[in-house]
Structures are given as C-alpha cells and as structure tokens.
Amino acid sequence: MESPPHSEPDRRGLGLAGEERAAQHLAGHGLDVVLRNWRCRMGELDLVALDGDVLVIVEVRQRRRGDFGGAAASVTHAKRRRIIRATRHLLMCRPDLARLPARFDVIALDGPEGRIDWIRAAFDAG
Length: 126
Prior knowledge:
It is built from 4 helices and 5 strands.
C-alpha cells in the first residue's frame, strides 16, 4: 500500500518553510515582522508586520502546481473572512497595534521553485 503523497507533518514543515521565506522577503523589503502564526478561536494570522506605521496582515499561500489559479487564487472569500475576524480579535488584544492603519497582503509561493509573488493590499476588511 502506498503512502499519501504529502503527510501532515510534511505539509506543516513545508508551510513553516514557506512562511520563513515570506518573512525573510518582507524583512528584505524593510518590513518588521512582529508576530508569526498568531492564533485565536477566530482563525490564524500567518505573519503580522509593520511597514513603517502601517500594520500589515500577511497571508502566506504555497502551491507546488499552478492548477486552479495557483497559490494566490486559494485565498477564497471564506479565508479572507476568517483572516479579517482574526485580525479584529488581534486588535482587541493588542491596542498598541489597533491605533495603526492596516492592510491585508498575500504572499504566494508557486511552483516547485517557490516563486514569490507579493500582492500588497490584496483585499480589504470591507
């Protein structure tokens, strides 16, 4: 019997490696990553960064293949809604961050080489 192509620990390891690449990419562009994998009952925020005085909530998506639109297309309406809810909860817990203007970015890692596509202001909370 064959094992599944990607076991859960393998997927988690790949996800963490992708998030680390995304964090390094952001840092290389002058952003300061202040939180990683922030979890609450509303959901999870992959990366929370500061771009000057702007709070940046970053969803990191990774796909080995470009089928069905690739990594960026995997940020569905439901996923955006969970990110927004988790962000609202974060801002209630962290008033120091709540005073800042915010934006939602997506970093998409596509293909076997993990090409990085940084989509600034990918969606809004409205």
